[in-house]
Design a protein that fits this description.
Order of helices and strands of chain B: EHEEHEHHHEHEHEEHE
Oligomer: heterodimer
Largest sheet of chain A: 4 strands, antiparallel
Bound molecules: adenosine-5'-triphosphate, magnesium ion
CATH superfamily of the largest domain in chain B: P-loop containing nucleotide triphosphate hydrolases
Radius of gyration of chain A: 31 Å
Strand content of chain B: 15-25%
Largest interface: A-B, 17 and 23 residues
Structural class of chain A: alpha+beta
Strand order of the largest sheet of chain A: 2-3-1-4
Helix content of chain B: 25-40%
Number of helices of chain A: 11
Largest sheet of chain B: 6 strands, mixed
Chain lengths: ~300, ~240
């Protein structure tokens, strides 16, 4: 009976205050869509960054003419460098077999193996990768760089990529957080404004309720409910938008674009939970704000 | 009782009203009649003095218990305070709904009170589709739907023609006869005289007259009443 009364009063109020309620609803939807888009994106970029970070290593390519003797010598030299945790040797045959497996068509055209023997040098800590690299390619007296060993053709590493990726990840995370915070504040304020207008529209009711002896919470509930209905509907609409986008755009692309298919992002069901909780939380905060300020019960 | 603005609402007005009494509160405009009503429902706090209702000191009622206390008092406001976008029925039912009345209670009590107040045919009208007298009766119906032991009516006959006023007074009298204490603020002297009930007169916040005019409900003479008043008259306002 009571819940029914509260619901009836709340919906009545929403109907009479359609404009501000719609404005609040739209803001909540936008906020939650943005949050719903950014949570997986932030997670995906961070996941990518983490996996890259764990794969930080220096690749040392041997000259193609290098024989077993040179390989063994270089391996010893590499292992002697400080901060080197592990040196993994990959022979040109292994490299060729692996590459061919990935792209059989291209490699079928080759008559001979163009790939050199390779050492993968792993640092004890990703931070030391640059030190290892400069130990392999020391700078000579004339400012020229040369190789640690004549049998080494070239050195590559992923540090530049890593650095860039980490920067991008941070940027994405910070931007997403700022945008989400800004929109959340806007939602709270718009809900608060809606409730304030609805308090104003229903001031006679509130006065009569007080004078005939309604308890404070009895007076507050319809307004809290009004905010919650707006917040929850906003969440549901946002979820509908996200689901439609996912089905129409992302799922067909997922096969081609590994970032989207990345398994480490939040499952959709949890995302729904998070968004509904956020919608309701935002509206509760907004209505609470107005009730505290404008409803002296 | 002083308003925060410094205006004096009431000034050392001491009186006592007994259970089941029917009392008029008269006085020119601004004499403090509405202030008495607002003090009694704890809408205002007295700046001095004490008010007792049913033996209970109102300053002792905590903020949280005010709603429960108010459920024992029906009030007909000077400006009615009817809700314009609700029908007669819903206006009356509202008082029950917001104080936790069940649907069953509403179904039982609202038609009854509407019959008592003669509004059965106007059930689905909105307040602006009613005459002033009918609006007053809706206000009375809403105040009395819970059958409170105390009914306050502020100018229930203000600016009505004599017939309408008589109807409303008869309605209040019937309510009084069900055992409800009734306090009516009015400046309709003709009506007050005709009703022959106890009259308290206020002037600039002071009680200047307290007497039973003519035949009293309990066949009490003016002298007996005055005697009773003397024995208890120094007590603070009590109902
Ligand atoms: N909210 C208020 N703030 C300040 N002064 C007030 C307030 N309400 C009433 N007063 C003053 O208190 C005094 C008594 O007012 P009250 O409303 O009790 O008069 P009343 O007898 O009901 O008059 P009326 O017959 O016109 O209804 C008046 O002088 C009025 O100006
Ligand atoms: Mg008045």
């Amino acid at each position: 009976m009571r819940l029914q009364f509260f619901l009836k009063e709340a919906t009545r109020s929403i109907r009479r205050n359609a404009a501000p309620n719609l404005a609040a609803l739209a803001t909540v939807v936008v906020t939650l869509v943005v949050v719903g888009v950014f949570i997986p994106i932030v997670q995906a970029t961070q996941g990518a960054a983490n996996s890259v970070r764990s794969r930080v290593l220096v690749d040392v390519y041997m000259v193609t003419s290098a024989g077993r003797g040179a390989d063994a010598r270089v391996q010893r030299e590499l292992q002697a460098i400080p901060h080197v945790k592990r040196v993994v040797f990959e022979s040109k045959q292994q490299a060729f077999a692996q590459q061919r497996a990935q792209d059989p068509a291209a490699y079928a055209l080759l008559s001979s193996n163009p790939l050199p023997d390779t050492f993968h040098v792993y640092p004890d800590n990703p931070a030391n990768v640059l030190a290892i690299r400069s130990a392999i390619t020391p700078t000579g007296p004339g400012g020229t760089t040369r190789m640690l060993d004549r049998a080494i053709a070239s050195v590559s590493n992923h540090t530049d990529d890593t650095k860039k990726l980490l920067e991008v990840t941070n940027l994405v995370t910070i931007t997403a957080a700022l945008l989400a915070a800004l929109l959340t504040v806007a939602s709270i304020l718009l809900i608060a404004n809606t409730i304030r207008l609805s308090l104003y529209a229903r001031r006679r009711e509130v006065e009569v309720m007080k004078l005939v002896g309604a308890t404070d919470w009895f007076i507050r509930w319809p307004f809290v409910l009004e905010g919650t209905i707006v917040g929850a509907s906003g969440a549901l609409l946002a979820i509908a938008v996200l689901a439609a986008t996912k089905i129409a755009l992302l799922d067909p692309l997922a096969g081609h674009w590994t970032l989207i298919a990345a398994p480490r992002t939040i499952p959709f069901v949890s995302l729904v939970g998070v968004l509904v909780a956020a919608g309701v939380g935002v509206s509760a905060l907004g209505s609470g704000l107005s009730l505290r300020r404008f409803l002296r019960v | 009782m002083r308003y925060p603005s410094g205006d004096t609402g009431l000034n050392q007005a001491t009186f006592q009203v007994d259970r089941e009494e029917f009392v008029f509160l008269v006085g020119s405009t601004g004499s403090g009649k509405s202030t008495v009503m607002r003090l009694l429902i704890k809408e205002l706090e007295p700046s001095e003095g004490t008010i007792r209702v049913a033996g209970k000191d109102l300053t002792r009622i905590g903020r949280r218990r005010v709603p429960l206390y108010r459920r024992n008092i029906g009030v007909v406001f000077q400006d009615f305070k009817l809700l314009p976008n609700r029908t007669v029925h819903d206006n009356v039912a509202y008082a029950l709904q917001v104080t936790g009345g069940t649907r069953k209670e509403i179904r039982a009590k609202v038609p009854d009170i509407l019959r008592l107040t003669g509004l059965s045919t106007k059930l689905h009208n909105y307040p602006d589709q009613l005459s002033g007298g009918e609006q007053q009766r809706v206000a009375i119906a809403r105040a009395f739907v819970n059958h409170p032991p105390l009914l306050l009516a502020d100018e229930p006959t203000g600016n009505r023609d004599p017939d309408t006023s008589i109807d409303i007074m008869r309605l209040l009298y019937r309510i009084n006869r069900t055992g409800t204490t009734v306090l009516v603020a009015s400046h309709d002297h003709v009506m007050v005289d005709r009703m022959r009930r106890r009259v308290l007169e206020l002037s600039r916040g002071r009680i200047v007259r307290d007497e039973a005019t003519g035949l009293y409900a309990r066949d009490e003479t003016t002298r007996e009443f005055a005697q009773r008043l003397r024995s208890t008259g120094q007590r603070p306002d009590t109902v």
